[in-house]
Amino acid sequence: MNFKALLAGILFLTFGYLFTACDLLGIGSNDNDRDPVLPDTTSSQFTWRVDTVGFINTFLRDVAIIDSNNIWVVGEIPERDFGGANDYNAMRWDGEQWNLERVIIESFSGNRRAANLYSVYPQTQKLWFGAFNGGYATLSQDIWFTEFMSIHGGSIFEITGDQSEDVFISGNNGILVRFNGSSFFRIPTSLSADITFMDYANDTLKFGGVDTLLQYIDGVLQPEFEPDASRAFRLSGGFTDVWHSGTHWWYSTGSGLYRFEPDSGYVQLSQRGISFLTGNSSQDVFTTDRVRFGYHWNGRTVTSFNLDALVPEGIAFINGIDMKQNLLVVTGWTEGLRGFILTGKRTAILNQMLS
C-alpha cells in the first residue's frame, strides 16, 4: 500500500466500530459526524478514525481534549524525513481537520524554537506545554508566553493540576515543581528516578515511576503504602499511571487495573498489564498497553480493542490518551516511525445507566 496516499476504508470489528485512514502532512479525512453523541458513560461501542502523521521520526507523546472542536496533540513532528530547520511540535484539531502547529519554547540559552514537546495540560482558561529542553509555554485567550524553567532544570515530562491556579510539573531525576498562581517552588522528593505519571485531586497529588508511588498532601510528602503492605502490589508489575475519577483513585500496573475503595482497599478489576489511564468517571474508564490493545471499563465489564489493527503501519508505541465525554484520543507512533492519532467516538448509548 502507498502510505503517502492512504485510501479511506471502513472496517467493522467486534463492537461495530469503523475507521478511516488518511495520510499527512496533507492532514484530515472526511468526517461528517464530528460532534459526540449525547452524554453517556456506559457504552463500549466506538467509531474510530485514524490519522497517520508526518514523515519519518515523527513521535506524538501527549494529547489534551478541550472540546470536540479543539484538541491538541504534542510531540516531535519533522517537516521532512529525519527533521529539518523548521520542524513542528504540535497539532490542533479545529473541528474540521488536524493543523500543524509550532509551539515556541525558550531554552536555557534564551533561544526560542519549536522544541520537542512531552506534555500538554488544559486548565479552565490556560493551556500548558512542557518541553524536552526544560522550557514551558502557556496559551491563554490567544496570548502565548514561554520561558525556561530554571527552578526545574530538566526535561518536563508531566503537567497536572486542578481548575484553580495549582499546577504541578515533573521531570527527570525526581524533579517536582509546584506553581501556586504567582510563583514556582521546588518540592523535594528524594527520588533519583524520572517522575513519569501523576494526577491531582482533592488537595492530593499522587505521582511516581515504575516502582514508586508517592503522595503529596497538604504540603507533606509521604509514601502511598507502608513498604511491607505494598510489596505484593508494587512488585506484581510496577506502577504505570494514576488517575482520579471524581470519586475514586485508579491505578494502572503491569499486572492490571486497580481501584481504591475506602472499605476494601485496592480492588483489582482487570489482570491485563496496562500503561495509560483516563476516563470520565468510575463507570467510564479507558486504558491502553504500550503497543497494541485498549480496554474500556463500563462499570461492570472490560471490553478490549485491538488498536494495532486500526493503524495501517502498525503501532510501535502508544504514548498518550485522553477522554472527554464521548470522545477519546490515543496517540503514539507507528512501526514506520510516523505518528498516529486514533480518535474514537461513542456510537451507542445504553438505555440503562449503571448504578
Characterize the structure shown:
The protein contains one helix and 31 strands. With 355 residues, the protein is mostly beta strands. It has a five-stranded mixed β-sheet, with no helix packed on it. The protein has a four-stranded antiparallel β-sheet with strand order 3-4-5-6, with no helix packed on it. It has a four-stranded antiparallel β-sheet with strand order 9-10-11-12, with no helix packed on it. A hairpin with a 4-residue loop joins strand 15 and strand 16. The protein is globular. The chain starts with 20 loop residues before the first strand and ends in a 9-residue tail after the last strand.
Concise structural overview:
With 355 residues, the chain is mainly beta. The protein is built from one helix and 31 strands. Strands 1-2-31-30-29 form a five-stranded mixed beta sheet, with no helix packed on it. Strands 3-4-5-6 form a four-stranded antiparallel beta sheet, with no helix packed on it. A four-stranded antiparallel beta sheet has the order 9-10-11-12, with no helix packed on it.
